[in-house]
Design goal:
Its EC number is 3.6.5.4. The chain contains 20 helices and eight strands. By secondary structure, the chain is of the alpha/beta class. An eight-stranded mixed sheet has the order 3-2-4-1-5-6-7-8, with helices on both faces. Bound molecules: guanosine-5'-diphosphate.
Amino acid sequence: MAFEGLADRLQSTIKKITGKGKVSEQDVKEMTREVRLALLEADVNFKVVKDLINRIKERAVGQEVMESLTPGQQVIKVVKEELTDLMGGEQSKIAVSDRPPTVIMMVGLQGAGKTTTTGKLANLLRKKYNRSPLLVACDVYRPAAIKQLETLGEQLDMPVFSLGTEVSPIDIAKQAIDKAKNEHHDYVIIDTAGRLHVDTDLMDELQQIKSTVVPDEIFLVVDSMTGQDAVNVAESFNEQLDISGVVLTKLDGDTRGGAALSIKAVTGKPIKFAGMGEKLDQLEAFHPERMASRILGMGDVLSLIEKAQTSVNEKQAKELEEKMRTMSFTFDDFLEQMGQVRKMGPLDELISMLPGANKMKGLKNAQIDEKQIVHVEAIIQSMTKKERQDPSLMNASRKKRIAKGSGTNVSQVNRLLKQFDDMKKMMKQMTNMQKGKKGKGMKF
Ligand code: GDP
């Protein structure tokens, strides 16, 4: 999962302070020292860390914490808010031009994931926002790059505009926009050339394309596995092109990844999307608050729900969230969700979004077992309506009946009941945490 090492360390640090009914300055000092080390070890830029720690310290020994009834949890709240701010605060939206097409220029070094992200972004725009993008191949130096985009276009069943390698990228971009206007594409996504390093020729060309097509967005695609280099690259591109946002790729990798957290602080430009895998549907809108929550082990139920509900409307997603919050989530809801599970993506990715998931070692690298899903579905289907609403009804003889009806055995039924119960407990912990309740709210 993204930022796994950092998450592990931060979670064990904050665990120590969470339940405290009293927090001394010494406690805060120790905690911030550990947070500082965790961030540095994760490769977050040292200046950024220093500022962040100072802000946390100042707030953690301030009134909002010391005078609260739950100082331990208030400190964590402060850490979460500061981490959220560090990554950009509010989630930033993608531009929509009032005179279509909206033009997005993708820039970045070779190998960062630019072409792949161009395809992913087009896919997301169509799937989530019902848009009709035109992809444009402007990397005239590498025929393979043009071919790669065309292949992505075929996979997505989306048009790709290319004029081969003999026409200048500036002309290609210009003609692509005319074509998009004629054919009523509301987005144009331009895949530009990359180099192994930032160089003047490349920047000149990108600047020319920029002044010709006047893009609504310039997204810099950055490989989060490249550590501090990612930050330097972001700085140079931003100086030369005044980018509008960053796409972090390869956040699914198991690198330290912390450098990426510095990008917003260093460039002032928001991270708009995160690449979470090689597949075309593995691009997520970047929500700083949700990411902070994931890093601190508080889970990311909202993203999880969104994933589950790509084909369902917002109202249903909200209802589900409400059910999770109020603990009225039943086996019926569970069953309904099961149908969506297969569409949602790898199980380990989903699990990483659950509160406290980092600590559930057994769940890491879990393999999704199709047979087991079928069993679970069968077990729930063998329950009566009442049982699904109220699992406590299920006594020994009912369990036997359910096992028989579903072609499983009682221990499988028990296991499912236990898992469901654990899941509810986890949700409860998270809800308590959000409410800032005192006591054993957050356990890791
Ligand atoms: P470009 O040179 O910047 O256009 O980079 P490509 O789009 O060709 O990507 C380079 C490599 O990174 C390819 O093998 C992609 O499959 C891979 N890649 C891109 N984005 C991601 C991501 O989010 N996660 C992972 N694991 N791989 C990615």
